[in-house]
Sequence to fold (411 residues):
Amino acid sequence: MILDAVLFGHGSHEAAWRAPDACPAAPLELAHWLACARDAEAAGFDGLFLGDILCLQDHPEQHPSEALDPLMVLAAMAAVTERLTLTGTVSTSFNHPWHIARRLLSLHHLSGGRAGWNIVTSSYPQEAANFGWPEMPPTAERYEMAGDVVAAVRALWAGWDGIARVADKAAGRYLDRAPAPVHHCGRYGTTGGPVNLSPAPFGRPLLAQAGSSPEGLRFAARHADRVFTVQADLAGARAFRNRIRSEAAACGRDPGAVKVLPGLVAFVAGSRAEAQAQLDALSERIGLDHLLTKLERFTGLSLAGLDPERELPCGSEPLRANRFSNSRAGLLLEEARRNRLTLRQLATRFAAGRGHLMLIGTGAEVARVMRDWVDAGAADGFNVMPPELPSGISTFGRHVLPYLSERRRAD
Ligand SMILES: Cc1cc2nc3c(=O)[nH]c(=O)nc-3n(C[C@H](O)[C@H](O)[C@H](O)COP(=O)(O)O)c2cc1C
Fold:
């Protein structure tokens, strides 16, 4: 069972930055990230995962959305860890393949071969504006672009195959031969190469992908070693993993080479009541205005004019019209319908779990669900999203990991 920790600035709960002990500007400080990295390695996680968007979020005056460059943060974390994989998000829409190839290899060398690339296509209109685009292209075009860019990056890395760094001081020879130009020519990802860094003595960096549209799924099946997905229930997660695996096989890959890691938000403590109290304490601090904007952005739903205290009209036109535009909208609406949630309740649920599998309970209870998912073929592990940082990392390690030690030793 693979377990990575996904680090959002203050934690995955939207109100984590307003908790009594939280320091609002902590994610701008090196000490915060180093504490997270050390705690994750000590707790027994396998890797760290940093997301990224290339803009401020909506209403940056209402909540912290300043963000450091993930690859720089991971490079700093490399210095205080020995074992964790370090996966950082880099967009294929706004970075040249040559830069991506080199930046990832830089992290790879600095970490002794532990770098991973979370491949995203970017989706916010503000990101398009930041790079002078009128808008983001449609999903299919973004993934076509991503396919070109990934092919170019891989060609740059592969351009070093078979070249030995002989480093012969006496003979005055550094490489046994010079790498040839790469000449990779795609519609969106053209490069002459070679990149000025060899992956050797390591293999290529790990490739991860996050996205659930049909295009995203096909892309992941072709390229990804790890898939980060939003899944709220076991049956849906198993169907998703089966789809990824059969698509991978259709691309000629070993389906076992693609590891599917659903996000998991766990509120965990010595008793279920304590865990619930932790969640309740954070939920009380939520700012509804900012959250509704974010919910609209993430789901594509139109929520304007709805009374936050009334049950959500799940069958109504604006909600239904956007029902299938984003898999997360579907998951959240399904939950709202099943539990007859008001808009405020849905927003509170979103603030805590972002649509991911959310568990509230003791370590034994949380570990049992995780084992059930893996046993049922719904996951190869989890991207654990601690609600608060850095404290949530060691809390999860202390409460949950002892119940999974057998399973993790067996892998
Ligand atoms: C769990 C998860 C995490 C994501 N993290 C990021 C991220 O850090 N940065 C980003 O630009 N997009 C991120 N995305 C967005 C996807 O890369 C993709 O652009 C979006 O989900 C739309 O693609 P889809 O329609 O294939 O899902 C994430 C998506 C998922 C499902």
The radius of gyration is 22 Å. The longest strand covers residues 259-268.
